[in-house]
Inverse folding.
């Protein structure tokens, strides 16, 4: 028998660690989507550079939407900081061992790249602005005339997207103190889940204003620029199908990774096994298996499969479920991860 | 004058101090800091003074930084602390900043105990008190005002009351604490042990602790020496129903069935005597009645004791042999709070006899004879003579061996008016609602009073029943009587103010002077202020007042305290010998050699409730201290884990305790643990406080005293038992 | 340059928490928080029991994950004694270091920055022991230079049996517990 007692009672630390509330899961979720969107946008830009898909739905909307989503994420991140007034201190240094440090620098670059990427088609997307700031149109034309530059920008998007997608996972993964996080699968899992959520997000975007004329005003135009299809036609059907097909792939890989994660934990140290218990009978079991796996992966996987085979009509439901599942994954990982801890080796004394 | 209902009083104190509880910074508390001293004070200053967080009286050095009380450290020159305080001493800073402190004199306006007060000036308070006192004197005589007190701070108030004619003065430190022990030792060796206990743990070869839970009981120097003993890896034997901290350091833990210690002690004596493992030379030279003692203990074999105590007879034998092997450097620790079962004097006498068998009296590594210092008394007028007997123990007939006044004796006299009515109580620094067993009796006695004055620093439970509450400053804000300590070397310690009073609180000596004037006897306080008094005594003793003020402590001269150092032994018993068989006990009809008697057993479904200390709290006085409270907010009821499982009680679950008389406690957490016998539960005393003005501690945890409705009184000296109650568990809905 | 460490004798420690109170007053630790604390480990079944009592705090690890994860360099290894310290006005309160510490040694000060045991560096600079070490009534704590083979801490480690907390975390703690 072992009776362990401690007199420590620090807020956020005891009885178990809970330093991160809703803000960090939100940030991780949104950051993951943005990462996925950058990768998708990169691919779309590659096609644009080749002269394919001249209407360039993804290449236009994705950076803009990504930019706006990133702001939401950054707001959540800022809200989480306990010493907000000192946030500038992040950019006084680059700490190579700290994923959070280089992640912050990546974020800075991501902002810039998203903005430049958005500039490619901004005047088309937002005529109101294009008409008032002619310089924008000039920049846009200049860029469009240079496929090599667009190709380069596309690759920058892809690389940064991958970095953004994995860095949060690496950040958690480096914490030896939290066995649930301390697994190399995590960065890949977060990346794939981000891609799947990004696909779902884009899918949702194509569905929200399918093919109505774009509003031209200040606010309406700005909003439409992010989510709406260019011109009066909806995106080509094969574009939508490609998204669904891609998402099926992402979800399948995600399922595989989750399986590996659980098996990996169970077959590792006592601490890792104990961490797995948190989702295998522990307090996070329901959200994990019900929320992340069933609602977030299995159900949309089946629905999308059926949609592609035209056995059921296309709806936004799978996309909504995937997004919910993506958030649930971050929520579970952040919360259960904090609760996981190194178990003292038995019979130490 | 403003009328204050309790609600309004609470509001006022909340407005002044309340913010602190919510704030994350526990000091300085806004209202207090503003009031305390010149705000402009910069830098660090230090003041040497001694601690009053308990009665061990460690010397310390207080640090004030930019006008704020920063920390309190041990004074390296002080023999009680040797430069290190215990957690309660270190936490004394929190006593100063306690948001619940009393602030100004209060006079009761409503019914007693309803806590409706009006704030009054000090002058009004003393006028009120003096008028009532004179009325009692006129009707019944000054003996009808009695006093309960504890601690050195009472010195001048006690002096003024004595000068006025008060003769009945008692403290819980006798009948509720170490009284039985000191009487048991006096009956055997001719003198008690006093405080601090002269146990030479520093040099002992074997230490036996019976209950004494050093490490939880934080009496400083003893704990320091105990830790050294652990480090020296000497055999330590601990007898305790609970796996105490001390037990965890011991070579042998004897998890005795509570209430059966005397059986073990007598069996140990049996082993020592039958196996000849005692100090024959000592017994021969200094002892008397040994043969009759030896014949008496023949019957108490370890096998017999095993049945009573639940201990292994071989362990009983082995431990006796082990500690005997180290004599005379063996200590069977006399304990301190020994009032457990009502037959405690005889148990203490058995312990004294075991020590006598070890021949350790006045020996290195045994019990040394403490040395003191001589400091001339300030010339004060004599107290008036009284022709009345003491109320608690008239002519020593009720408790023939009591050598101090018995608190519960005064309570009883108040209740039944015999030998004469008691109409007024002064209570200084003692929470007698908790310190005495069975608070129903205390309450009834209070209803018979015409005057109840409580002098306290906090709104204690007893203060809630007072007619007049006089708020004293804490020890950090006052001078007190000089401490002349007894120990390996005598010493003088000075208590002096570190901070100014944060509100309208005053020191005891100042109150005494005002009261003397109001009572028309100002001549009994013939000095301008206490500094005049203190410096006179210090200088007359040949020391420098300035040095004492600067250093806090002056060492007395070294005198022999052991035979090894040239001490000669004398025994102040009637026979002049160590009394193995006691003629004086026999004469009064008591057992001349302790005899074992069984105690009542718990009814089925009930557990014996025992109490003790937590290292970070003192009795009922520290629970609202923000620093100490942070370390322990409430107590837990210890229960054997297997028993808990049987009862369906989980660790950490809240329950209520109900005793055999149906008294229920406040909710308390279960500590399901292997560290206690299955038939016993344990509570740290001092929690579950009942004065709502003591916000920081109000009803937090279970109040052990409230569950102590049954008690037995030691017929020898009036000690009252505390471990004679049984409780069962009531699950929280 | 010294490499400071602490050696605590669990045989002598009585769990009195004096070290905790002393740290509170010395360092103005805010109400409701603590930089050090007591852990007790009871093994066995009644009446065959053993108990280890430990005063715990930041271990000033030789391999400190809390430093590695810090995005601003606020958490750093101080040249003085190679101790792990937090520069409060560079800390953004991201709490990564709280999550990274396997010992729960850190907390967020109500003022917003990460806080923890400093090994009382301000006292060390004056040649004094940390507050907790110098208050301990059982004298069970020792403090000094682990790189100096003649220091009291090194001698104790060389002559007694000891363990550190969660060695499997790979942090190489510099608070040692004598058994
Ligand atoms: N921290 C702290 N220290 C204190 C005090 C304080 O308030 N706080 N108060 C001081 C004062 S005034 C006193 S008197 C002392 C009291 O402290 P001590 O004299 O050391 O101990 P007791 O209170 O008599 O006994 C408590 C211990 O006895 C055990 N016990 C209970 N019943 C029995 C029994 O039947 N047989 C045996 N063998 N053991 C039993 C309990 O489990 C517990 O471990 O502490 C002093 N030190
Ligand atoms: N049930 C139970 N009863 C017990 C005990 C037990 O363990 N269990 N222990 C017994 C023992 S060993 C003892 S010694 C007694 C102790 O009994 P008491 O001496 O009554 O001790 P406390 O309960 O601390 O009450 C002290 C009161 O003094 C106040 N006070 C503190 N400092 C000062 C000051 O500087 N000036 C003034 N004027 N007041 C001050 C506090 O606020 C508190 O209200 O209790 C005994 N009674
Ligand atoms: S033992 Fe502790 S509380 Fe008692 S006087 Fe000494 S330091 Fe103060
Ligand atoms: S002060 Fe010393 S004995 Fe007390 S808990 Fe801390 S380390 Fe242990
Ligand atoms: S104990 Fe924790 S906070 Fe301290 S150095 Fe090690 S990892 Fe960092
Ligand atoms: S909370 Fe402060 S010290 Fe900790 S990792 Fe973040 S910035 Fe660094
Ligand atoms: S070394 Fe200083 S800061 Fe660290 S726990 Fe001890 S007293 Fe607190
Ligand atoms: Mo006592």
């Amino acid at each position: 028998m072992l009776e362990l007692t401690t007199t420590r009672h620090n807020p956020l630390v005891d009885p178990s660690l809970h330093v991160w509330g809703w803000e960090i899961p939100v940030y991780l979720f949104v950051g993951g989507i943005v990462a996925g969107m950058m990768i998708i946008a990169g691919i779309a830009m590659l096609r644009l550079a080749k002269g394919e898909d001249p209407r360039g739905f993804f290449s236009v909307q994705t950076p803009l939407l990504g930019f706006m989503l990133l702001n939401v994420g950054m707001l959540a991140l800022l809200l989480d900081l306990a010493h907000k007034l000192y946030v500038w201190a992040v950019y006084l240094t680059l700490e190579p061992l700290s994923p959070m440090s280089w992640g912050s620098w990546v974020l800075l670059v991501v902002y810039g790249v998203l903005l430049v990427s958005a500039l490619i088609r901004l005047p088309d997307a937002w005529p109101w602005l294009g008409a008032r700031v002619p310089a924008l149109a000039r920049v846009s034309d200049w860029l469009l005339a240079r496929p090599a530059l667009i190709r380069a920008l596309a690759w920058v998007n892809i690389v940064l997207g991958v970095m953004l997608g994995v860095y949060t996972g690496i950040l958690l993964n480096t914490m030896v103190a939290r066995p649930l996080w301390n697994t190399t699968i995590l960065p890949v899992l977060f990346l794939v889940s981000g891609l799947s959520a990004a696909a779902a997000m884009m899918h949702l975007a194509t569905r929200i204003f399918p093919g109505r004329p774009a509003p031209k005003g200040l606010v309406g135009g700005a909003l439409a620029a992010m989510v709406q299809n260019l011109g009066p036609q909806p995106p080509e059907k094969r574009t939508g199908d490609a998204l669904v097909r891609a998402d099926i792939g992402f979800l399948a890989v995600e399922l595989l990774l989750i399986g590996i994660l659980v098996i990996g934990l169970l077959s590792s140290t006592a601490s890792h096994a104990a961490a797995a218990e948190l989702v295998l009978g522990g307090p996070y079991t329901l959200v994990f298996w019900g929320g992340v796996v069933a609602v977030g992966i299995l159900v949309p996987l089946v629905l999308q499969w059926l949609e592609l085979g035209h056995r059921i009509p296309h709806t936004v439901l799978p996309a909504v479920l995937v997004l919910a599942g993506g958030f649930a994954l971050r929520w579970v990982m952040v919360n259960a991860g904090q609760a996981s801890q190194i178990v003292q080796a038995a019979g130490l004394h | 004058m403003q009328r204050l209902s309790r609600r309004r009083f609470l509001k006022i104190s909340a407005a002044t101090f309340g913010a602190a509880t919510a704030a994350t910074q526990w000091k300085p508390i806004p209202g207090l800091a503003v009031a305390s001293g010149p705000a402009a004070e910069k830098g660090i200053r230090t003041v040497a003074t001694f601690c009053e967080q308990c009665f061990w009286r460690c010397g310390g050095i207080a640090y004030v930084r930019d006008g704020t009380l920063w920390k309190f450290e041990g004074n390296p020159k002080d023999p009680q602390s040797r430069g290190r305080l215990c957690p309660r001493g270190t936490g004394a800073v929190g006593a100063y900043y306690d948001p619940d402190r009393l602030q100004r004199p209060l006079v009761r306006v409503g019914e007693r105990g309803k806590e409706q007060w009006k704030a009054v000036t000090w002058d009004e308070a003393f006028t009120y008190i003096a008028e009532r006192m004179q009325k009692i004197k006129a009707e019944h005589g000054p003996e009808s005002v009695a006093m309960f007190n504890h601690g050195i701070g009472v010195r001048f108030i006690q002096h003024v009351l004595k000068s006025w004619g008060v003769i009945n003065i008692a403290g819980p430190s006798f009948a509720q604490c170490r009284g039985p022990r000191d009487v048991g030792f006096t009956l055997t060796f001719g003198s008690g042990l006093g405080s601090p206990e002269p146990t030479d743990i520093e040099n002992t070869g074997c230490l036996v602790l019976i209950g004494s839970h050093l490490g939880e009981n934080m009496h400083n120097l003893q704990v320091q020496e105990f830790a050294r003993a652990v480090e020296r890896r000497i055999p330590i034997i601990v007898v305790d129903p609970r796996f105490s901290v001390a037990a965890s350091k011991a070579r042998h833990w004897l998890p005795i069935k509570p209430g059966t210690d005397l059986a073990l002690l007598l069996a140990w004596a049996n082993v020592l005597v039958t196996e000849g493992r005692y100090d024959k030379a000592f017994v021969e030279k200094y002892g008397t009645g040994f043969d009759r003692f030896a014949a008496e203990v023949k019957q108490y074999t370890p096998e017999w004791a095993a049945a009573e105590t639940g201990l292994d007879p071989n362990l009983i034998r082995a431990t006796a042999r082990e500690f005997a092997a180290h004599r005379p450097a063996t200590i069977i620790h006399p304990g301190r709070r020994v009032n457990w079962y009502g037959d405690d004097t005889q148990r203490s006498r058995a312990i004294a006899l075991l020590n006598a068998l070890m021949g350790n009296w006045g020996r290195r590594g045994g019990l040394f004879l403490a040395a003191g210092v001589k400091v001339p008394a300030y010339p004060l007028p004599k107290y008036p003579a009284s022709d009345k007997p003491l109320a608690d123990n008239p002519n020593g007939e009720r408790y023939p061996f009591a050598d101090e006044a018995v608190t519960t004796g005064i309570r009883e006299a108040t209740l039944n008016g015999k030998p004469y009515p008691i109409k007024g109580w002064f209570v200084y620094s003692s929470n007698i609602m908790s310190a005495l067993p069975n608070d129903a009796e205390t309450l009834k006695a209070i209803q018979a009073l015409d005057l109840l004055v409580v002098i306290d620093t906090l709104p204690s439970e007893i203060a809630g029943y007072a007619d007049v509450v006089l708020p004293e400053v804490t020890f950090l804000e006052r001078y007190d009587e000089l401490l002349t300590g007894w120990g390996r070397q005598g010493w003088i310690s000075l208590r002096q103010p570190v901070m100014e009073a944060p509100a309208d609180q005053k020191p005891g000596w100042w109150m005494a002077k005002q009261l003397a004037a109001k009572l028309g006897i100002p001549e009994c306080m013939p000095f301008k202020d206490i500094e005049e008094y203190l410096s006179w005594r210090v200088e007359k003793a040949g020391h420098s007042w300035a040095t004492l003020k600067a250093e806090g402590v002056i060492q007395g001269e070294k005198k022999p305290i052991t035979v090894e150092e040239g001490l000669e032994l004398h025994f102040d018993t009637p026979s002049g010998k160590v009394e193995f068989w006691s003629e004086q006990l026999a004469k009064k009809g008591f057992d001349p050699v302790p005899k074992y008697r069984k105690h009542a057993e718990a009814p089925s479904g009930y557990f014996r409730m025992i109490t003790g200390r937590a290292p970070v709290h003192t009795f009922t006085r520290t629970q609202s201290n923000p620093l100490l409270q942070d370390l322990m907010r409430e107590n837990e009821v210890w229960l054997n884990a297997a028993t808990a499982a049987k009862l369906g009680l989980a660790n950490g679950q809240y329950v209520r305790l109900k005793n055999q008389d149906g008294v229920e406690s406040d909710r308390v957490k279960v500590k399901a643990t292997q560290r206690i016998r299955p038939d016993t539960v344990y509570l740290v005393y001092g929690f579950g406080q009942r004065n709502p003005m003591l916000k920081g501690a109000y009803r937090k945890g279970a109040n052990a005293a409230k569950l102590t409705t049954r008690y037995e009184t030691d017929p020898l000296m009036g000690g009252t038992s505390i471990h004679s109650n049984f409780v069962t568990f009531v699950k929280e809905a | 340059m010294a490499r400071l460490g602490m050696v605590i004798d669990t045989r002598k420690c009585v769990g009195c928490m004096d070290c905790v109170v002393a740290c509170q007053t010395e360092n103005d630790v805010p109400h409701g928080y603590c930089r050090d604390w007591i852990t007790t480990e009871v093994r066995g079944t009644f009446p065959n029991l053993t108990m280890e009592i430990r005063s715990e705090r930041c271990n000033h690890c030789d391999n400190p994950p809390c430093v590695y994860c810090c995005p601003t360099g606020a958490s750093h290894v101080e040249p003085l004694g190679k101790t792990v310290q937090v520069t409060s006005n560079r800390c953004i309160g991201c709490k990564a270091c709280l999550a990274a510490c396997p010992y729960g040694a850190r907390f967020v000060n109500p003022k917003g920055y990460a806080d923890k045991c400093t090994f009382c560096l301000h006292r060390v600079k004056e040649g004094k022991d940390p507050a907790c070490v110098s208050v301990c009534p059982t004298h069970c704590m020792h403090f000094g230079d682990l790189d100096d083979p003649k220091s009291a801490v090194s001698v104790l480690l060389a002559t007694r049996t000891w363990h550190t907390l969660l060695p499997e975390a790979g942090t190489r703690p510099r608070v040692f517990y004598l058994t």
Q: What stands out?
A: Chain C has one domain: 4-178. The pocket of molybdenum atom (ligand 8) is lined by residues B 173, 177, 336-337 (CB under 6 Å). Chain C touches chain B at residues 9, 11-12, 14-18, 20-22, 24-26, 28, 30-34, 42, 44-47, 49-51, 53, 110, 131, 134-140 (CB under 8 Å). The beta strands of chain C are 4-9, 37-45, 48-56, 75-78, 83-86, 107-108, 114-115, 141-145, 162-163, 175-178.
